[in-house]
Write a structure and sequence with these properties.
The complex is a heterodimer of chains A (824) and B (119). Chain A has 22 helices and 34 strands. The longest helix of chain B has 34 residues, at 85-118. In chain B, 48% of the residues are buried. Chain B contains 5 helices and no strands. Classes of the chains: A alpha+beta (824), B mainly alpha (119).
């Protein structure tokens, strides 16, 4: 071999070894068999016994991992417990923590390069990093929350510092980056990120787009402030069934070309504003959380039962990390969020709590008049010019190179951004002072329902329907958080003229006015993201375009009709195959067939097939396939007026609750199919044509023999790894779920039950739970996705609740880790 | 010492130094091996082979009681390689580093020896 050839080969090997080339990370650290990606195998499983030193501990800590990989942390003090929690979080979920922090801080470009630049820009423009920093800075030096967060982050950094390259998550090696140092403010970034997922919306811009297409009256009807079917979270005394509000469906206006252009521009604005936010809960439930509880009088055991079923975008690893902390008086079990010491959902020996998203309108947009349309320095306010503050944000790439700089502007309301409607400022509860971390850390010590809510007084965002039960048998629910009071008609769904303070929020809903129920006479409580208050009983604007009530109706039906609930019945309810949506839709189809005796043979055959269906969305179901096809076809044909001229997609889709209410109006103009200008369709014609088309298309797609159709081929759950890498994802999971079921299945199937649990608050607390995934973030660990099959089947694991170290039965104890104090 | 013994020594050195120091020790050992075995015409090939075998040994050690097969499968898929391609790529990379370093060392060392003998 010549010098040239040998040199070139070696140079290529070393250059690719030391440096990333194009999208490939440096091959040396990647392929190194001892420290590269292969090392993931060495750290995949827990050693039976292990010991380490941890700086800052006051005393030794024992951590016993059970057969589900749950660490039971036994510490002398709470601070030691939180420090240890940081350490175990880092060991199992470091890369997830890194990505969460970067997503919320708008620094993803530093690990992923320019492809995430627009996401980072949107995140910073929304004001997340600045608000997180302000919240951390606002904590007093002697605030116990501060000490807990510092101890936690010290634990995280201690693990990072002692980890060898071989022990680092393999994702770092695939990306060719190193872990960053974690800071206390990161805890607030995580909480901000949760607020963003659960409460940030482009409502006003979306509404303007819809109004431009169909006019304000039709918009109010199709995206109403009050849900036309009421099954509120706060029970109405004496009511034993949902109620139906009057629903009218005025004809849409015909948009001019300029209105269509305006609609498109507003939709583009909205898409840009919510870039990177996936957990939208508007309209048809893509993400649909549930919770319910029964008082002792309605449980078979005579003890209070509580069930939690929070739904979120599903990822691997899961957003939650299950943990048991025992320290002094604290004995807490629940799901934690890696990057913080808080346990948002869980229980202690006396109280259990869980949450669903309230979905209230807590973001408002204002059209501002500025002095300079390119680089504004002042905005008009009450006849005078008010100063705009500005700062420059820099976005850097993997090697520290500057990718972009943005100037971000702020008014007294919040971040100011340029949209097609001009310069638009926003006000969002999550950006303002609040005390979520402190509230959560205080609430875990509560010994009663009332003490729990008292501890949560400082909680502001994202507003949650917190359901709480205690061992005395008391159950309660409260939509907890900050709900702004607005001037005028109180609505916050329309873009306001920001040139006057008269449009600003005037206060917040007081605690006494919040949607809530304490120890209700009916003996049970439930929430499923539905409108919390029945406006005919307790009026007041909390939001608009509420999610469908189908899940709430089904839960309440189960709880109303069964006065002897058990944990097992609650478990079955999590994956209940029935939907309250099927009955009204099938009734409408049957009514249409009766009204049209001359309907086609295909329509009759389809209806016969649907009538024989048990209305269960189980994976093997055949009828579910056709029902879903009919529903989608009906929706597409009914709401065609919402497709901007020349576009393929609707600007927005009224949810199925509106469709069901529209069934009552046989001749509504909304039934008219715009594709057939010579014919004015009515309800029955549109429904029968939808039935016929769905039958024909399904047979064409899946075969003429309906007995071979399977729901699992149409709708599955797909859980993606944070980097969406093929080998790390788990896709095409057949689940018992469908439109309107307690476990709703819509769209791409990337959302679902992020944690299911049931707690029985008897003399001894018992609990069962599961989430899709596993405790380890290591994709080659047996603990990466070990719970997935059980979750898919609706199973729950019995949770182990040892009171002290050594009490965990040997047969379920997988590993014992001892952490001892190290010299600083 | 015979050629197989030298080969085994090279494998052991590469495996140990990869484990203790890092991947870049493989070309270093490959180059040293060729210089030491300068009379052996096959030294660069043997060094390359030793690099691949050494990394195979390290992989075997990693795989003891650990899911290395799962790494091959999942990371291979993530990198859009075949199921066992990651193993082949890893061993080939070790071999390339050691072999090319050895060949370069041989090529650079040979003229210097000639000029020394002239003196």
């Amino acid at each position: 071999m010549t010098v040239g050839v040998a040199g070139a080969a070696l140079a290529a090997g070393l250059v690719h070894g030391f440096f990333p080339v194009r999208n490939l990370p440096a091959l040396g650290p990647l392929l190194d068999p001892a420290h590269g990606v292969w090392a993931a195998a060495r750290t995949a499983e827990l050693a039976p016994e292990e010991s380490h030193a941890l700086t800052g501990l006051g005393a030794g800590v024992t951590i016993e991992y059970d057969d589900h990989g749950v660490p039971h942390i036994f510490a002398a003090t709470e601070l030691d417990a939180f420090r240890t929690l940081g350490w175990v979080h880092a060991r199992d979920r470091l890369f997830q923590m890194e990505m969460t922090q970067r997503a919320a801080a708008g620094t993803l470009t530093e690990v992923a390069g320019a492809r995430t630049l627009e996401l980072d820009r949107a995140t910073r423009a929304r004001g997340l990093p600045a608000a997180a920093a302000a919240k951390w800075a606002a904590l007093a030096a002697d605030d116990p929350t501060r000490a807990a967060i510092i101890a936690y982050m010290d634990g995280v950094n201690a693990w990072v510092a002692q980890a060898t390259p071989a022990e680092l998550p393999l994702e770092y090696k695939l990306l060719g980056v190193a872990p960053r140092r974690f800071e206390p403010v990161d805890c607030f970034l995580l909480l901000m990120q949760m607020s963003q997922s659960l409460s940030y919306r482009d409502d006003e811009l979306r509404r303007e787009a819809i109004e431009a297409l169909i006019g304000p009256a039709a918009t109010d009807a199709l995206f109403p402030v009050n849900a036309p079917i009421q099954e509120p979270i706060e029970p109405v005394a004496g009511r034993t069934a949902p109620t139906y509000l009057t629903a009218r469906f005025p004809a849409p206006t015909v948009p001019t070309p300029s209105k269509v252009a305006e609609a498109r521009a507003r939709l583009d604005d909205g898409r840009r504003l919510i870039a990177g936010i996936e957990s939208e809960t508007k309209g048809e439930a893509v993400v649909g959380s549930n919770n319910w509880a029964v008082a002792p009088a309605r449980s078979a055991s005579g003890h209070a039962l509580l069930s939690g079923d929070p739904h979120l975008q599903l990822t691997l690893p899961n957003i939650w990390y299950e943990v048991h902390l025992v320290a002094g008086e604290l004995d807490l079990y629940g799901v934690s969020l890696p990057l913080s010491p808080v346990i948002p959902i869980g229980f202690n020996r006396d109280v259990a709590w869980t949450a669903t998203n309230t979905g209230a309108d807590v973001v408002d947009f204002y059209r501002e008049t500025v002095d300079d349309s390119v680089a504004p320095t002042r905005y008009r306010l009450d006849g005078e010019w008010a100063p705009i503050t500005s700062r420059v944000e820099t976005f850097t790439g993997k090697r520290g190179e500057v990718l972009a700089t943005d100037t971000l502007y702020t008014t007294h309301r919040g971040p100011l951004q340029r949209t097609s409607a001009g310069w638009t400022s926003q006000r969002w509860t999550a950006l303002e002072p609040s005390g979520e971390a402190g509230a959560y850390l205080q609430a875990i010590r509560a010994r009663s329902v009332d003490a729990w809510y008292e501890a949560m007084q400082g909680y502001r965002a994202p507003a949650q329907n917190f359901l709480v039960a205690d061992r005395t048998g008391r159950i309660a629910i409260r939509s907890t958080g900050r709900f702004p009071v607005r001037p005028g008609d109180g609505r916050g769904d329309r873009l306001q003229d920001g040139s006057t303070r008269a449009v600003d929020w005037t206060g917040d809903w007081p605690t006494a006015r919040l949607p809530q129920a304490m120890a209700p006479a009916q003996g049970y409580l439930a929430s499923a993201n539905q409108q919390p208050l029945d406006p005919t009983v307790r009026p007041g604007y909390l939001g608009w375009d509420w999610p469908t009530p189908w899940r709430a109706m089904r839960i309440n039906q189960i709880l109303r009709t069964d006065a002897a609930m058990t944990p097992e019945k609650m478990r079955l309810a999590h994956t209940d195959p029935q939907s309250a949506l099927t009955a009204p839709v099938l009734a409408a189809l049957q009514g249409a067939l009766r009204a049209r005796p001359m309907a086609s043979e295909e329509a009759r055959a389809a209806m016969t097939f649907l009538a024989a269906w048990d209305q269960h969305f189980d994976p093997e179901s055949q009828g579910a396939v056709l029902f879903d096809a009919v529903l989608r076809t009906t929706i597409n044909r009914t709401w065609d007026e919402l497709i901007p001229e020349g576009d393929a997609q609707r600007a927005a889709t009224p949810n199925s609750m509106l469709l069901v209410r529209l069934f009552e109006d046989r001749t509504s103009i909304w039934w008219d199919d715009r594709r057939t200008p010579d014919v004015r369709e009515d309800r029955d014609q549109l429904l029968l044509e939808s039935l016929e088309t769905a039958w024909r298309e399904t047979r064409a797609q899946l075969g003429n023999d309906p007995s071979a159709w399977r729901w699992r081929t149409r709708r599955t759950t797909n859980i993606r790894h944070l980097l969406q890498l093929p080998g790390f994802d788990r896709e095409s999971l057949a689940v018992q779920a469908g439109p309107g079921t307690l476990s709703p299945s819509e769209g791409r199937g990337t959302a679902g039950a992020s944690w299911r649990f049931v707690v029985e608050l008897g003399d001894t607390v018992q609990a069962w739970g599961i989430y899709p995934g596993g405790q380890s973030g290591n994709p080659v660990s047996s603990r990466y996705a070990d719970r997935l099959e059980g979750w898919r089947l609706g199973a729950l694991n019995a949770l182990h609740l040892p009171r002290r170290a050594g009490e965990l039965p040997g047969m379920v104890r997988r590993s014992v880790l001892t952490l001892s104090p190290a010299a600083p | 010492m015979t050629r197989p013994v030298w080969f085994l020594l090279a494998v052991m050195a590469m495996a140990t130094l990869t484990w203790v120091v890092g991947w870049w020790m493989v070309p270093v050992v490959g180059a040293v091996f060729t210089v030491v075995r300068r009379t052996d015409a096959a030294a660069p090939v043997l060094a390359g082979l030793a690099g691949a075998v050494a990394w195979g040994v390290v992989l075997a050690l990693v795989a003891r009681g650990a899911p290395a097969g799962s790494v091959a499968l999942t990371v291979g898929r993530a990198l859009r390689l075949g199921p066992n391609a990651l193993i082949v790529v890893t061993l080939a990379y070790g071999g390339l580093l050691a072999g090319s370093a050895a060949a370069l060392a041989r090529a650079l060392a040979t003229p210097r020896e000639r000029s020394t003998s002239t003196l």
